[in-house]
Amino acid sequence: MRKILLVLVALWGFSALSIAQNYREIVYLKNGSIIKGVIIEQTPNVSLKIKTADGSVFAYQMDEIEKMTKEEDTTPQSSFKRNVSGNRTVGYRGFVEVGGGFGVGYAGDGIFSFQTSHGYQCTPYFYLGAGIGLDVHFGYNTIFMPIFANIRTNFLNRPVTPFFDAKIGYSVVDGTGLYFNPNFGVSFGLNKKAALNFGIGYNMQIADIYYLYYNYEERRIIGAICFKLGIEF
User: Are 147 and 132 a contacting pair, CB within 8 Å?
Assistant: First the structure.
């Protein structure tokens, strides 16, 4: 747990540093106006175009300009707008996760899990997809392959956001039965194209368990608390 906390602190520091290192241009006009944004086009000694945070583009002749400077842009909203342009836009989204955990409940069992999900980011807040995984249950020495539908909700429209993720489907291979995996976690935007996710949830697998000593079989819930680390792209 201590190592996990250190990783989270380091990622938060990385995110804060990225914000602090963003800059924007300031154009001072001779009429007294001040325009802040990003210069997107410039003809030396003739003209320039500057794009402001709301997406507006302004063009000026150089003889209208008094001076130009730069300043650090530490505004969270501005940072988010740059990040979200490549991080949670509408369109294809993919996830890869690895995890492990300990059993809970009467038939609980320790688990190692690998999963991948692919689908559509409907809005910056909502993802819908489908995926496949490989769950190894240690105590039962059994492999399940869950095939599932996947929904995810981001609570904030920011690079760093808590999320809720749920997978529901059916498992095959050694054991078969209903599969359900709800998770809560935090997503850290690493750059304009990727994010690192950390989550914790409950892994529920319904399957028939055979008790050799009693020569008896019954359907039970194999439960586990599972920690996950993943990337989205």
Answer: yes
* Domain hosting residue 7, numbered range: 3-75
Beta carbons of 187 and 199 less than 8 angstroms apart: no
Residue 182 in any domain: the answer is yes
Threshold 0.70, pTM exceeds: no
Distances (CA, A) of 74 to 71, 177, 196, 199: 9, 50, 22, 28
φ, ψ for residue 223 (rounded to 5)? -110, 150
Whether 199 and 144 share a structural domain: yes
| Reported confidence tier of residue 18, pLDDT bands at 50, 70, 90 | very low
pLDDT single digits (tens) 156-187: 988 899 999 999 999 998 888 999 999 999 99
How far, in Å, CA of 186 to CA of 12, rounded?
A: 11
Task: Write out the H or E segment, with its range, that includes residue 43.
Answer: strand 34-43
The tokens describing 140, both together, are 């039962």
DSSP SS3 for 22: coil
- Tell me if residue 232 falls in helix, strand or coil: strand
Task: Band the pLDDT of 193: cuts 50, 70, 90.
Answer: confident
Tell me, yes or no, whether 105 and 67 share the same domain.
no
CATH number of the domain where residue 145 is located: 2.40.160.20
Q: How many domains does the chain have?
A: 2
